[in-house]
Amino acid sequence: MDRTRPFVPRSAVAVLTATLLAGTGVTALSSAARAADADLVRNGGFESGLDNWSCTAGSTVNSPVHSGSSALQATPAGSDNARCAQTVTVKPDSQYTLTGHVRGSYVYLGATGTGTTDVSTWTQSAPNWQQLTTTFRTGPSTTKVTIYTHGWYGTGAYHADDISLVGPSVDPGQPPAPPTGLKTGTVTSTSVALSWSAVPGATSYAVYRDGAKVRTVSGTSATVTGLAPQTAYAFQVTAVNDAGESAKSATVTATTTAGGGGNTDLPPHALVGYLHASFANGSGYTRLADVPDSWDVIDLAFGEPTSVTSGDIRFNRCPATECPGVESDTEFKAAIRDKQAAGKKVLISIGGQNGQVQLNTAQARDTFVSSVSRIIDEYGLDGLDIDFEGHSLSLNADDTDFKNPKTPVIVNLISALKTLKARYGDDFVLTMAPETFFVQLGYQYYGTGKWGGQDPRAGAYLPVIHALRDDLTLLHVQDYNSGPIMGLDNQYHSMGGADFHIAMTDMLLTGFPVAGDAGNVFPPLRADQVAIGMPASTNAGNGYVPPAEVVKSLDCLTKKANCGSYATHGTWPGLRGLMTWSINWDRYSNWEFQRTFDGYFG
């Protein structure tokens, strides 16, 4: 089906006819009936954010607005038309008028579940605010109707405001009683699990953190995420139904734990680089002992599998025939110990462009754990870097929730990394270097999508990062060799300047709805867990930026200064630092990347 233009059903003619008849008085209500009518939409002007609305994408903005101080802005992306909906209580066999004001191209307003003929109306182009109106009559047993607004695929952002549904009201009764039995469950460094007793008559529950509403859920449990480590929080819950919201429950408190991934003794700002240890290319071989002291984390590239699905990882150092001047194993191990004595971390990096790893089975998972452990033990390494690329990670069609993954390659990788972390303890350094396709692209697309047809690798790193966020030392996404990626401003950003690095990093530190689902948000990472991945030179990869653009990126993210067109959602002076591919290419370029880092962070 061509989704570039909407299909206009014949029923639209009927709706228009009904509207015209209403204008001539044929379906006009009596004065007495009008007096009993009410606007049944809750928060139709979006003055309370998205409260009472269920949106697959969108947020409230202060400009443009039709009236008041807020309006809805939503951007269709991929197979999502950015639908916002609300279910309201109606009277059976009654006439209702649905009205809203919209801006944008191909914006819809409609109602479903009417019990008669579901209706919708739309505008092809509304550069300024335009009123949309449609009417319907409820069926003889209809008590609930869902009203909605949405855009159209690939047509950009739309705005909606002052949505109303006018018609006979129904006595909603009384708000429910406050919830009881509120208690905490699992507490991590960034999240607190809550549960409470069900309240008769409640249709949903609102969760409050330190007095501010942070979540609305339909069940009697919720996990509040995005918290700071070692911080005390107070939580309350209310019960909600058509009549309103209850008083708040009794307060429970919880203090988050110390961040498991932040216990390693890295400096406040770290420089991370990959050292070509198993291969040679045009950058030349660099001995580990010759790596300057500026490099705080050295990733040995690469450990690779004996086959894609074996899970058997081998680290074969570059032979002298390929890498003239390569040190002996004894010298190499001595250099590792010397780096560690100087406070540096030396890791084995698994994967890379040619080292695809798919842990499809429990046997492959266990082989991965044992083979990686042998490498770590033989060389006395500090930890592990996961650089799975290509087709290593992808999502099965039924794997739609990043918080509860089902795909074997994902589940087995998470299990393997947790086993390694438990084996080596709190000082084990765990880092990841995914490409933007596997992380930030998840803001628009996740796996094959609701209707299938999308690349199953889209966003596939998100469940791994999320499951290990309390064990993760560093995430340094490769902001290079990337196509354009949509940022949180719903604009596409391309490599080659500070704007790309700012937008991509802001997404990690702010969090984002996965595949535009406002109810399924990837929580932010701590600033000390994030480094920006950049190529060291034009030879190293596409997306190189000169030192001035590196400085702009750091200024904007750590000081909110020197920013360009992208507006960040915070300031993070604790941003851990920079990662580059690679140490070898930086040496080839007279250590330009290292000198930029040293000049900025001292």
On the 0 to 100 scale, the average pLDDT is 89
Radius of gyration: 28 Å
Main sheet makeup: 9 strands, antiparallel
Oligomer description: single chain
Separation of the first and last Cα atoms: 57 Å
Note poorly predicted spans.
1-35
Helix segment tally:
10
Task: Describe the global form.
Answer: elongated
Structural class: alpha+beta
Molecular structure report:
The chain is of the alpha+beta class. The chain is 19% helix and 28% strand. The strands form 6 sheets. Strands 1, 2, 3, 4, 5, 6, 7, 8 and 9 form a 9-stranded antiparallel sheet that branches. Helix 8 (547-559) links the parallel strand 29 and strand 30. The model is unreliable at 1-35 (pLDDT under 50).
Topology:
Blueprint lengths: L10 H14 L6 H6 E3 L14 E2 L3 E3 L9 E4 L9 E6 L5 E18 L6 E19 L6 E7 L7 E11 L14 E5 L4 E4 L8 E6 L2 E6 L3 E4 L7 E10 L2 E2 L6 E4 L14 E7 L20 E9 L7 E2 L14 H13 L3 E8 L9 H18 L3 E6 L19 H17 L4 E4 L29 H6 L6 E2 L9 E2 L5 E2 L4 H13 L1 E2 L7 E2 L8 E5 L11 H13 L17 E5 L1 H6 L3 H10 L1
Parallel strand pairs: 18-19, 18-30, 19-21, 21-22, 22-23, 23-24, 29-30
Antiparallel strand pairs: 1-9, 2-5, 3-4, 4-9, 5-8, 6-7, 6-8, 6-9, 10-11, 11-14, 12-13, 12-15, 15-16, 15-17, 19-20, 25-26, 27-28
Keywords: Carbohydrate metabolism, Glycosidase, Hydrolase, Polysaccharide degradation, Signal
Protein name: chitinase
Organism: Streptomyces fuscus
